[in-house]
Structure formats: structure tokens, C-alpha cells
Amino acid sequence: MPISHSRSRVASVSAAALTLSTLVVTGGFAAQPAVAAAPVGYQNVRINEVTSSNNDTVELYNTGATAVSISGWKMSDDSFSPQTFSASSTTIPAGGFATFNSPKGLGDSDKVVIYASDGTVVDRVQWATGGAKPAMARCGGDGTGAWVTTTVATTFAGANASGCPSSLPAASRVRLNEVTSNGSDTVELYNGGTSAVSVGAWKYVDSDTSHSPVAISASSPSATSLPAGGYLTFDSTLGLGDNDSVFVLDSNGNSVDSVTWATDGAKPSTERCANGTGPFQTAVTATPGSTNSCSASGGGGGGGETGQLLGGGGSLSSGCTPEAPSGTGSAPTGSLAWPGGLDVTIADQVCAFTTSTGPEGRDVSGLAFDPADPSVLWAAKNKNWLYKLVKSNGRWIPDPSWSASGKQIRFANGSGEPDSEGLTVGGNGHLYVTSERDNTDNTAPRDTIMEFDPAATGSTLTPIHQWDMTSQFPQLDTGSKDDANLGFEGVGYVPDSWLTTNGWTDPLTGTAYNPANYPSHGSGLFFAGLEWDGTLHVYGLNSDGTFTTFGTVATGKASVMDVSFDAGTQRLIATCDNTCGETHTFMKIDTSGAIVPDVTYTNPAVMPTDNLEGFALAPTSTCVNGRREAVWSDDGIYGFGSGSSSYGHALYSGTFPC
Question: How many Cβ atoms sit within 10 Å of the Cβ of residue 165?
Fold first, then answer.
């Protein structure tokens, strides 16, 4: 049983001696048989779902990278002492599940505590009346999400996503984010949501079952509210042991989140990676009150590990000529290691994007998952082509039912060859594509956003609407094709709901943004990334062909190559290629109503340092074992150069935390 600094550890206890509220010893310790130590990785096993309806099933999930034996483990509830249970498996594989029915019935208001074979508390969940009907489940990532009462059905032995409500309550965006057991015993909470959460009546407790929960507001420093996108830290008054746990409860007594660590696991701290969402790992540097360092080995990069680059290969087709990268620069100060998986897979056929206007196969740029159908990935090729991509044998290929060779796009009236760089899917399901030049006259800028209906028939698409912002960027109109090539490089559609919920200040009025003031703009705004200086330019695109300019947003980067909005993290993402050290800056709305950088991640270490201009995160509805797909596109299909397995490929696939 993990205990505080002031107490010594007892190696074994009587099975009947441990209850949830008191520690009672019966019989002599000398008579107790030896028990097996807690297995390596036990702290990665999390209670993931529990029901108090009928069979009273409990589900465990392994967030770690290796299998964990649960042989000899026990459980208790709010009234009975630890008892053995019969699970569906005595070993839980990495990213796997095990289920069992409680040896005694679970009440309408109750708790479950899981113990390793040596009596160490592994995890605990509790619920108020009705909270586990049909089930209490972790939502927002198996094993890592916050506890929520499901509204659909139980999902035992499978991912919770399908049983979770489509919209989670604000409190469910609060996570335990970092804990130290280095004397100060600091606990950090992070609010990844879009509104402040009152935590004054919330409580916490450690794994010592003789301890009663303590109010967060009674700790030091006292705190009662956790702002959107903000942190709250306090020092535990219970004392946190060398191997221990922290459990957080809301004002009704429902579990919010928990973390368990093994010996030295919280020295200097145990932290979530990615910040606010991923599984816990031991940090190299503690960062209470700010973004987690995520520099240790484990769920995210770092620790000397580089992962593997998988797949690729194949012979270059006639005329396919990869282009070496240019413009390599350093990452912004404070950039963190990639928080997702270390391995990356080459995800297309060699020379897959050769066209009549681009026979060299290069220049794949913007990427965007279709929010209405996450099995579809849209891609833009600079020399006026769009692709609808679908998965086949692990690779992204052109959807033959749309066009096996892509569709060519034109400017309004069917003219020119748009230098198509970025694309996004609007609230109406249409594709919005940016162009920085007309390739038939590439010394003159033509910074436009074009709207295309993907359901339109034919091999060539013309825009339904086109908005021309060229006159706003005289610095690009110098007669130089290089300057003209530094215009709109990416675009992201941002729903009004995110802007209003987070209190974005409208630059045109100086007050809270009110979409009703712009009746023709649709349901969101468009953020176009300018390669010239890394700024985002915000537009309302009106149905009559006019547009409203809302000003600019600084990203802190020298350039921007792609822009996207991720509903999972509730962040706007500005992506830069090797110009900025292959980085992605996640941006939030701060308390003043401004859009500002929150955290910047580098690419997985195994990836080449190329002109990787496109980036897209799959929706959280696709999450499996707490991960979802991330896709990158190489504008030059260079890989690691001639003779390598990555030479001639444009798409890379990895994972990102849910």
C-alpha cells in the first residue's frame, strides 16, 4: 500500500484487514504468507468503465507500452474488503482490455478500488447515485479521459468512444496533468475545455485508504476556479509517497481523474504526454503551472528514442523527379517533442501524384480530413489538382469513385491554373482552397480562396465562389516569382462556436465576437496562413462573393505552411515545415480574448527534414487505444534522398493522442 513520507511501508496485509475508510489489522503479521510484488507497469493499468446495472462489470485498460499481469489482483467497493476476481484475461496487453464481474454487487452510489497482488492501490473510481447507469466510463481517450456517465450503452472489452456522449460537460475537460512527490507534493490540474470550471468544492485523496478526501480549496494555495486552457496547482496536505496515487472527486463525489506512479515515478514529476490528454510518464523536468515538458521516453518522443520509419520503397516512374528541401531553419524556442507515437509509416505509393501539369510528382501540400467522413482525406497539389483519398492496404490512394487521377481545378470562369496550396472543409461540406499564384503567370501574386463543391461531376472543377485578397499584400507583388510564391500557403475553417464559447474579441468592434453582426458569412471564419511572415489572416467569406477582413494573428513562427482547426484539442494549429524546424503550434484563445500560441510540437524524430507542407489530425471519433492518425505531406517527395525507401513518396502517417 503506497503511503506518505511520514510512514513506513508494510509489505503485506491480511486480506480482511483493508477497508476503504479504516486500516484494521487482525492476527499476527508473522502468520501472513508472502505475496508477489506489484508487476512492472502496474501504474499504467486504469479502470476504464464500470456499471452498477445487473452484472456489475468492471473494465481495466493498459495505457502502457508493455503487457501487465493482473494475476492475484483484488478489488473492493464501498463496503467489502479486497476480494479476488476472475478476469477475462490474467494479462492485459499494451493498449488492451480485461473485464470481470464484481464478486459482490455494486450499489447505485458506490466505488471500486483495484489492488495489485501486494496490496498496492492501482486505481479507484467512485460515483454518486445513478452515475454508473448504464456505466461510468473514461471519455476522451481510453485509460486517459475523464470520467463521464455514458448516455448510449456499455462498451466493455472495446473502446469507450461509441458509448460516450457526443458533447462532454465542461468539467470533463479537466485532467490531472502533473504530480510531484519531491517534498512539495504538488498536484497540477489542467482545463483543456473552452470555459472556466468551478473546483472549490472538489476534493482529492491519495492511495492511503485511511485518509479522507481533502477539499482543493483547503489546500495551499487555495483555489476555487480553473480557467479555460489554464492550470491550477496546489500542494497536497496528505503527503505523497514514493509510489502512490492521487484521485480527484467533483462536488457530487464522482471521480474526475486519477494517476498512480511506481517507485521514483513522480521524481521530479509524473506528467501527461501530450499535455492534458495523453498517458502519464516520468518527466525529466517538472513544470508545474505550465505546459508539460514531455521529454522523457514513453508515450511521446525524446529519451534518445527515434522510432522507426516503416514502409516505402518502389521505383520512380518516368519523369518523377523528387526535389531536395530548401530553407531549413530552427524550431521556435520552447518547442516540445512530438507527443504521439515514435513510429511513422510511409502512406502512399511511390510517385502517386504525377499529373499533366506536374509530371515530376511533386508539390503535394494541403491536407484535411473530412469531418463528415473521417475515412476520407482531401489533398491539394500545387499545380491545380485536388484528390479525394481513401485507405487501401494501409496506404492513402485516390478514391476511384471520385477520380482515380485527381480533379483539376480552375479559377472562376474556368481560367488559369491555381497554385493550390492549402485546403479546408467548411461548415457546409464544401472544399475551400487557397492559391498564391496563377501558374500560367507565376511572377504575379494571386492570393485567393476558392469554394468548390466536391459533389460536382466532371474531371475539372470551377469555384462556386472566389474571394481575391491579392491587394492586401503589396509586398508580394515585386515581379519576382519567389516573392509571389510566399502568399496563402494554408487555410483552416474555424467554427463560430469555438470563437464565441472562448470569448474571442472581434478586432473590428473591440468587443466579444458576435456572428450575427455578419449575416452572410456562414457558420465560421477562415484563417489563411501567409508564408511570407507566418501570420494568419482572418476572413468572413460572404455568400455574395464579398468578404470581411478581421485582421491578423501572430503565430510566433517565421512561416506557415498549413492551417487547421482540431476539435479534439480545441486548438487552431499553424504548421511550418523545415523552415521552422518541422513544427506545429497549437493556438488558444486567452483570457483577454486574443488568439495566442499555447504549445509547439516538433515532428516525430524519425521523419525526414523536408518541405513537409501539409498536416492533418483525424477526428477523435477515430480514436483507437487513445491514439488517432496524423498525416503529413511532402511538397518535394524527397524523403531521405536518392536510394532511400522514402524517396519519391509524399505522405507519412503517425499517431497523436486523443
Answer: 13
> Strand, coil or helix: what is 231?
strand
Residue 567 DSSP class: T
Grid coordinates given for 583: 513544427
Rounded to whole angstroms, the Cα distance separating 221 from 289 reads 12
CA distances from 92 to 64, 65, 68, 407, 607 (A): 10, 11, 5, 47, 31
CB 376 within 8 Å of CB 429: no
Strand order in the sheet with 255-261: 214-215, 203-206, 244-249, 255-261
Residue 159 identity: A
* CB count in 10 Å sphere of residue 151: 12
In single-letter form, the type of residue at position 18 comes to L
pTM of the complete model: 0.63
Q: Half-sphere exposure (CA, 13 Å, Cβ side) for 591?
A: 7
Contact indicator for 68, 92 with CB cutoff of 8 Å? yes
Mark the ranges of the chain whose per-residue pLDDT is less than 70. 1-35, 65, 295-306
> Can you give the pLDDT at residue 4?
31
Name the one residue in this structure whose C-alpha cell is 477523435: 620
Sign of CA dihedral 562, 568, 572, 575: negative
pLDDT of residue 513: 98
For residues 209 and 203, is the Cβ–Cβ distance under 8 A? Answer: no
Residues 154-206 have pLDDT tens digits of 889 888 877 888 777 887 889 899 999 988 889 999 988 878 999 989 999 99
Burial of residue 266 (CB within 10 Å: 0-12, 13-18, 19+) is buried
Contacts of 463 (CB under 8 A, 6+ apart): 409, 410, 411, 412, 450, 451, 452
Q: Which amino acid is at 433?
A: V
What are 632's three cell numbers? 503529413
Residues 368 and 425 sit within 8 Å (Cβ to Cβ): yes
Residue 35: the pLDDT is 58
Q: Over the stretch 590-648, which tens digit does the pLDDT of each residue have?
A: 999 999 999 999 999 999 999 999 999 999 999 987 889 999 999 999 999 998 999 99
Q: What is the pLDDT of residues 382-398, one digit of tens each?
A: 999 999 999 998 999 99
Cα(619)–Cα(609) distance, integer angstroms: 26
For position 13, what pLDDT does the model report? 28
Residue 53, pLDDT score: 83
- DSSP E strands in 479-570: the ranges are 488-495, 524-530, 535-541, 547-554, 562-566
Sheet holding 186-191, edge to edge: 231-235, 186-191, 174-179, 270-272, 280-282
Cell of 503: 470569448
Question: What stretch of H or E contains 484?
Answer: helix 481-484
pLDDT of residue 2: 35
CA distance 104 to 126: 16
Phi/psi for 504 (5° steps) reads -60, 135
Give the three cell numbers for residue 39.
Answer: 508487476
Peptide bond into 221 cis (omega under 30): yes
H helices, E strands: number in the chain: 2, 45
Three cell numbers written together for 259? 494517476
- Residue located via cell numbers 494555495: 221
Residues facing 248 on adjacent strands: 204, 257
